[in-house]
């Protein structure tokens, strides 16, 4: 910890030195004015429709949070956004972000599949759900677009889009240094500096470090779980290309090595069923936030990205921009799937090993060309988009982070599997990875997937001011848009599975082998997603609009042993009507939105216990689902010194005629004593049994219909309220003391489609608070703050761990508090 603090202090000292040098530069006086009411009243500029416009002029449901608001509310991760934005929920498992908007989101936990809510950083799509777990830092604002964004954003934006807009270089020197220290020994250091290098060239460099102890411990290893160890940085270099052109080059880096996002033991999947007892009985942690494990769970991630944006104004009405980006993402995830200190292994206790190692090596490249036209009659965007991604996830089960079962070599030799081939499938090299020259033996289960996507699209959207042509229709506009998408998806899932059985040669049945050729699958998807909108502005303060839009998410493969599955696409059709009203001379802004949608082919993932690997992955399309809802937002500054925002969202989202199998029905588990409704009527624990013995004539599956059940991660009610009040007195230097509080509420959230209470989060309310000081010149700020004031304990997700035959859970953070101080220049 001392070394950590010294390193953070050194970084802060460097930035302070830079800050002192930059402070000596001439800064325009207007840049020193810090209007605390800005962002809550007056005109708020967003780029949700790929052009700059006022938030209250944007005919869609969008919430914008400025950089100051994010900082003051201690929003540093995507999960933090759910306390500030309506109709958004966030969870994570298997190191994957689970973002949902209006009932649409990421419904899988196998890498390779796509999310339903798109994440964009400065207009660039971030494909991997694992790569979306980076922290938020040095942002100008965050825009959350609710509802399908099929026309302008395209790929996998069936539920909406979260757009991160980073702070850009300025033509004067500016920056900040900021530090936060809180309970759990958590330290966050952040700094940025930018300005002119020479005439026509500007820069900005920003970085953040997040360090801290865990919310729980692993009693086996004595190390923390749910801790933080993250480093990240971003650099912008901007060039003026004459009077009408600009080139912005950006590089980003992210590094994480901690035990964050740990899945904790919650309950057995089959209580009362002896043949399906969990594999970790006797080794579970006592406290919910602790996690007993024979290995230390953790995530080791490294990611970097390069982006170039070239733009020119061709004339007063026409501009062109090209955004090219490359991202490389590599991550290792370690966890013991029995969530227990019990060491399982056929050579140890005759049970399958449960230690999982998942690595992801993904590269993506995208290029988007935009042509923007603006006139009194038409505002429009026309563009082309290209995207390609290669993924190589590798899943293994063994006895430790980097070790396998000693007898594997003999088994593989017996079954004619080349040792170097087994090493490759397990993600290792046969030339000495541990112990000097000692060879590392392969694991029990190894799957090494090749998942490739290539996509292109042509899109356009235009808003026509009808009043320019027909004066009697002054204030009316029509919006037309569409996107044609073409995607080609390929998948391969080669691997080896060593099956153990007492009495067999080397205590193993013949090894299962899957090859690239034998698992190769590919599909091509095409779709046209139209959009039509009407909007009417009877006066400058009132906007009424209606939009019909469609969205499309292509089918995808998954990383599962021997799988040849590429699921069908998702299609969504959405109707939305809204009212936006500004009153009290611009001090208050209100919006009311109603929507209804139908989603066809919802892609869902689950795992079933049993089979040669100990688990079977099911990735398929549900029947239709639908939702309707209403959202109300009110924000502003009704009088000087008081600012607020409040949002209420109601969502009614449910499945149509969805027939599937339940992972918690013993009848659906292969292996062991076969289920028989008469002679072996296992207790069903969480659900009703098969209706009658004839429901199970020849196979061990029992299907049920989930029509009417709620969609995953979708509370019926959500409420967010933010209040700020400048206390009515000045400190000696003209400084201001501001009291701030935040309240958020969510009704019950079901994490699976089965509507089981154990796989849900009970209704909860979170309260945050802060007292913030700002100096008279606005340069220095300090605050004391608390989040989750009443230490509400709620799950953020659950997952049925089929290998361990149990239910795991992740949790929202407990009560945290601390102090933050910063200097701006």
UniProtKB/TrEMBL annotation:
<dbReference type="InterPro" id="IPR037066">
    <property type="entry name" value="Plug_dom_sf"/>
</dbReference>
<keyword id="KW-1134">Transmembrane beta strand</keyword>
<keyword id="KW-0813">Transport</keyword>
<dbReference type="InterPro" id="IPR012910">
    <property type="entry name" value="Plug_dom"/>
</dbReference>
<keyword id="KW-0406">Ion transport</keyword>
<keyword id="KW-0812">Transmembrane</keyword>
<dbReference type="InterPro" id="IPR000531">
    <property type="entry name" value="Beta-barrel_TonB"/>
</dbReference>
<feature type="signal peptide">
    <location>
        <begin position="1"/>
        <end position="24"/>
    </location>
</feature>
<keyword id="KW-0408">Iron</keyword>
<protein>
    <submittedName>
        <fullName>TonB-dependent receptor</fullName>
    </submittedName>
</protein>
<dbReference type="GO" id="GO:0009279">
    <property type="term" value="C:cell outer membrane"/>
</dbReference>
<feature type="domain" description="TonB-dependent receptor plug">
    <location>
        <begin position="55"/>
        <end position="160"/>
    </location>
</feature>
<keyword id="KW-0798">TonB box</keyword>
<dbReference type="Pfam" id="PF07715">
    <property type="entry name" value="Plug"/>
</dbReference>
<dbReference type="InterPro" id="IPR036942">
    <property type="entry name" value="Beta-barrel_TonB_sf"/>
</dbReference>
<keyword id="KW-0732">Signal</keyword>
<keyword id="KW-0410">Iron transport</keyword>
<keyword id="KW-0472">Membrane</keyword>
<dbReference type="Pfam" id="PF00593">
    <property type="entry name" value="TonB_dep_Rec_b-barrel"/>
</dbReference>
<feature type="domain" description="TonB-dependent receptor-like beta-barrel">
    <location>
        <begin position="265"/>
        <end position="789"/>
    </location>
</feature>
<comment type="similarity">
    <text>Belongs to the TonB-dependent receptor family.</text>
</comment>
<dbReference type="GO" id="GO:0006826">
    <property type="term" value="P:iron ion transport"/>
</dbReference>
<keyword id="KW-0675">Receptor</keyword>
<dbReference type="InterPro" id="IPR039426">
    <property type="entry name" value="TonB-dep_rcpt-like"/>
</dbReference>
<keyword id="KW-0998">Cell outer membrane</keyword>
């Amino acid at each position: 910890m001392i070394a950590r603090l010294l390193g953070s202090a050194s970084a802060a000292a460097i930035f302070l030195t830079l800050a002192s040098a930059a402070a000596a530069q001439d800064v325009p006086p207007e840049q020193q004015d810090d209007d605390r009411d800005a962002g809550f009243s007056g005109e708020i500029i967003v780029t949700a429709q790929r052009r700059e416009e006022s938030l209250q002029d944007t005919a869609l449901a969008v919430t914008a949070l400025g950089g100051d608001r994010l900082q003051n509310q201690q929003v540093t991760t995507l999960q933090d956004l759910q306390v500030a934005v309506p109709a958004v929920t966030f969870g994570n498992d298997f190191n994957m972000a689970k973002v949902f908007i209006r009932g649409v989101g990421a419904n899988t936990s196998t890498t390779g599949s796509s999310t339903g809510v798109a994440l964009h950083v400065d207009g660039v799509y971030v494909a991997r759900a694992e790569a979306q777990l980076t922290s938020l830092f040095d942002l100008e604002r965050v825009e959350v677009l609710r509802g399908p964004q099929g026309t302008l954003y395209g790929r996998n934006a069936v539920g909406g889009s979260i757009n991160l807009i980073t702070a850009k270089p300025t033509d004067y020197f500016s920056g900040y240094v900021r530090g936060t220290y809180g309970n759990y020994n958590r330290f966050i250091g952040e700094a940025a500096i930018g300005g002119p290098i020479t005439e026509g060239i500007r820069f900005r460099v920003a970085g953040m470090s997040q360090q801290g102890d865990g919310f729980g411990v692993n009693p086996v290893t004595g190390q923390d779980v749910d801790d933080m160890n993250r480093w990240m940085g971003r650099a912008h270099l901007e060039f003026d290309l004459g009077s009408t052109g600009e080139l912005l080059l950006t590089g980003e880096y992210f590094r994480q090595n901690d035990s964050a996002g740990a899945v904790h033991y919650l309950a057995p999947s089959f209580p009362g069923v002896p043949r399906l007892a969990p594999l970790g009985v006797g080794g579970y942690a006592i406290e919910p936030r602790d996690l007993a494990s024979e290995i230390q769970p953790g995530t080791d991630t490294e990611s970097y990205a390069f982006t170039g944006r070239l733009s020119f104004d061709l004339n007063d009405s026409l501009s062109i921009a090209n955004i090219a980006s490359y991202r490389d993402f590599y991550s290792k995830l370690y966890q013991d799937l029995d969530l227990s200190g019990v060491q399982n292994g056929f050579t140890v206790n005759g049970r399958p090993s449960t230690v999982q190692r998942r690595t992801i090596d993904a590269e993506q490249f995208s290029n988007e060309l935009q042509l923007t036209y603006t006139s009194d009659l038409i505002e429009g965007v026309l563009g082309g988009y290209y995207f390609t991604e290669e993924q190589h996830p590798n899943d293994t089960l063994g006895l430790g982070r980097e070790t396998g079962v000693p007898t594997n070599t003999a088994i593989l030799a017996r079954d004619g599997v080349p040792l170097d081939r087994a090493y490759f499938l397990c993600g290792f090299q046969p030339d000495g990875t541990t112990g000097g020259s000692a060879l590392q033996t392969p694991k029990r289960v190894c799957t090494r997937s090749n998942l490739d996507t290539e996509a292109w699209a042509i899109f356009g959207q235009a808003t026509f001011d009808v009043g320019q042509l027909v004066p009697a229709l002054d204030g009316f506009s029509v919006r037309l848009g569409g996107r044609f998408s073409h995607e080609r998806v390929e998948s391969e899932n080669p691997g080896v599975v060593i099956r153990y059985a007492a009495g067999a040669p080397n205590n193993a049945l013949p090894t299962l082998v899957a090859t690239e050729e034998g698992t190769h699958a590919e599909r091509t998807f095409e779709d046209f997603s139209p959009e039509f909108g009407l909007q009417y502005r009877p006066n400058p303060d009132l906007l009424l609009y209606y939009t019909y839009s469609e969205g499309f998410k292509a089918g995808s493969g998954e990383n599962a042993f021997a799988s040849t599955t590429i699921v069908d696409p998702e299609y969504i059709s959405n109707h939305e009507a809204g009212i936006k009203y500004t009153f009290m001379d611009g001090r208050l802004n209100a919006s009311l939105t109603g929507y209804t949608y139908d989603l066809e082919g919802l892609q869902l993932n689950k795992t079933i216990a049993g089979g040669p690997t100990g688990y079977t992955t099911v990735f398929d399309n549900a029947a239709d689902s639908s939702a309707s809802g209403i959202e109300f937002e009110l924000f502003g500054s009704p009088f000087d010194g008081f600012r607020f925002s409040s949002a209420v969202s109601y969502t009614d989202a449910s499945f149509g005629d969805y027939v599937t199998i339940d992972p918690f029905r013993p009848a659906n588990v292969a292996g062991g004593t076969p289920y028989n409704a008469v002679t072996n009527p296992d207790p069903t624990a969480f659900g009703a049994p098969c209706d009658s013995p004839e429901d199970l004539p020849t196979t061990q599956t029992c299907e049920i219909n989930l029509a009417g059940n709620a969609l995953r991660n979708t509370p019926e009610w959500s409420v967010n309220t933010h209040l700020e009040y400048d206390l009515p007195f000045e400190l000696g230097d003209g400084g201001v003391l501001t009291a701030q509080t935040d309240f958020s509420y969510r009704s019950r959230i079901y994490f699976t489609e089965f509507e089981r209470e154990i796989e849900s989060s009970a209704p909860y309310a979170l309260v945050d608070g802060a007292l913030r000081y700002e100096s008279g010149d606005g340069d220095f700020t300090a605050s004391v703050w608390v989040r989750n004031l009443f230490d509400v304990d709620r799950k953020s997700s659950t997952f049925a761990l089929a290998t361990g035959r149990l239910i795991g859970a992740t949790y929202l953070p407990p009560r945290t508090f601390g102090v933050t101080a910063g200097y701006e220049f």
